[in-house]
Amino acid sequence: MAYYISNIARSKGDPKVIHSGPSSLGAADRMAKALGWFSIGLGIAELVAPERFTRALGMEGKEGLVRAYGVRELGHGIVSLSPDKHLGLWSRVAGDGLDIATLMTAMRHDNPKRDNVGIALAAVLGVTLLDIIGAQGVTARHSRPRGQPRSYRDRTGFPQGVQAARGAAKDFQVPPDMRAAPALAAVSDRAPQERARPH
Amino acid sequence: MRALVWHGKEDIRCDTVTDPEIEQPRDAIVKVTSCAICGSDLHLFHNFIPAMLPGDVMGHEMMGEVVEVGPEAKGKLKKGDRVVVPFTIICGECDQCKRGNFSVCQRSNRKKDLADKVFGHATAGLFGYTHLTGGYPGGQAEYLRVPFADATHIKVPDGIPDEKVLFLGDIFPTGWQAAVQCDIQPTDTVAIWGCGPVGQMAIRSAMLLGAKQVIAIDHLPERLEMAEAGGAITINFDEESVVERLNELTGGEGPEKCIDAIGMEAHVSPSMPDTVYDRAKQMLGAESDRPHVLREMIYVCRPAGVISIPGVYGGLVDKIPMGQLMNKGLTIRTGQTHVNRWTDDLLRRIEEGQIDPSFVITHTVSLEDGPEMYKVFRDKQDSCIKVVLKP
Known about the structure:
heterodimer, A: 199 residues, mainly alpha, 9 helices, 58% helix, 2% strand, B: 391 residues, alpha/beta, Quinone Oxidoreductase, Chain A, domain 1, Rossmann fold, 7-stranded mixed sheet, 6-stranded parallel sheet, 18 strands, metal-binding (chain B)
């Protein structure tokens, strides 16, 4: 829909979108994008309001750790939204492991918010599953398949052969504005006038 | 009509859009018969170059048949003409066009105010390449409106297949200009980073221009094989040190001429720590481009040598060794391609059989398959090097 707004930057005779077709983005790419934005959102929340997380999880005093995790989440998000999204999603999987380990430390019997920690753990496990599916999806979609590449041994580009092509454009005169600096041109057979020029 | 439309990062769709219309007296409408996905389209695909808007039609490498001509273009074009459309839109009349500096045409960028602010001074309008270069709809579509069409075209004769002449619109003259601005001498070693489509064209151009040896650098076996087929000595940077091998091949002196056919998205590998650093900064928005190749070229190039940069850079780069560059007295030549400056000569070379640029095509598909082919091309799957689309 954004293209309707951007039409204001176009002139009257420029083509405008009537109907949108299939995209170069696959399902895995869209998932990576969604998870990337989720990371950015979570990261900002952890940075801005860490005490809400620690209070809800009975982890008071760990605000610094939550902020650090917020920075980490922002990193995951930025990479997941970049062309290197597979790295971003796999880094999210690693981050999920760290989150799970951290939450496990809060699953103590003396933690009055133990139930909340259980819910958070279940949520993180669910997201981990999505991250793994997404990471595997984008890795498979964007990897170069192993195996023998096609052979381009005969793609010379020279119908008369490579040897005939070497120097075939010797009739070409390099325009004066594209000549090399005299320091190199001075040794040239092509530019005797440059040799004569005092340096 | 159908067209490949940018909707956001990595989101290209084959949409139904309104047909383009003649807007200015010098316009023409071309029915596209063939178009291609360019490596530089991937920078837009990744949204690394700013000022794309949802709804922008992609594509800047296309050709077809003229179906409608504005009143002021009628002297130079007529219905039925077969044309390749250069990716740079040119007025043909401004000071820069008169000098042959077509890619910095002073009149064709219709969003000059925006471009002036970003670049200091606006450059030419380009098809399908952000609103910084005019926001012109591209040619991965069934029809294309060509502004300044009386100047912005390359007429091609009937009887030559599209595949042989299509690349006159971009990658062939781009590889050619990259080699030409090296001022190649018969004693020169030319090292070319990147064996994608532009790299392949630069290899062939350096061969035609008579370099003593051409060295091609990449890590994908199929691309290295294609480079070797064109007469290059190859270096696989996954298997050997580029700097050591280049020095070995040049008697310890380094190549006189270096060509960067990679640009802003250098391959990232832990074995090249600066690429990881660049990628991290790029993700954080602290650097727009990954200039590993520039650093390596400056380091290994022979003193007083030439560095030619056809690879696209989009914004800011970091940690460029200016000390090496300055002390070694290197010359840097770069710029978008002045396509029409070279195309008459290159068309003649194609007709004479010196070169057949169709060698680089690995995939030919319909426009509907375009979105998927962006992914295949980006991920280097199925040994993909160059995709041609048939609308």
